[in-house]
Amino acid sequence: EPASAVALMRARYSAFATGDVAYLWRTLDASHADRARPRDDVWRTLKDTCRRVRFLGLRVLDDAPADAAGVARVLFSVRAFEKGRDRSFHELSRFRHDGAGWRYLDGEPRDGAARDGLTIASFARDDGA
Hints:
Number of helices: 4
Mean pLDDT: 94
Helix content: 25-40%
Order of helices and strands: HHHEEEEEH
Oligomer: single chain
Largest sheet: 5 strands, antiparallel
Structural class: alpha+beta
Radius of gyration: 14 Å
Shape: globular
């Protein structure tokens, strides 16, 4: 199990890049919305995403350790392309340790590459420019 939320973020990125859907499913928090959907539907969607999108790079921009509620945050940027079109995005993700390991709770994605110097504190003010 990854030792931190940042390490899980990196591992999940690698799983998307290599199509490791089982790992993506296993590292979802029990409260994640996809856990309420049929597993086969989620796996089919994840497999399709992994097949269609070329993941070309991950940059962790900022992170915050677990707060009083046990939720850690990671801000990252991904370079990705689909059929020659830029699908890059940045996201502020939340993670929680469930006693066995860190799990992905949810995230707030934004299209496009993150601007230089973006932090968790400035993410809410970022207009994507």
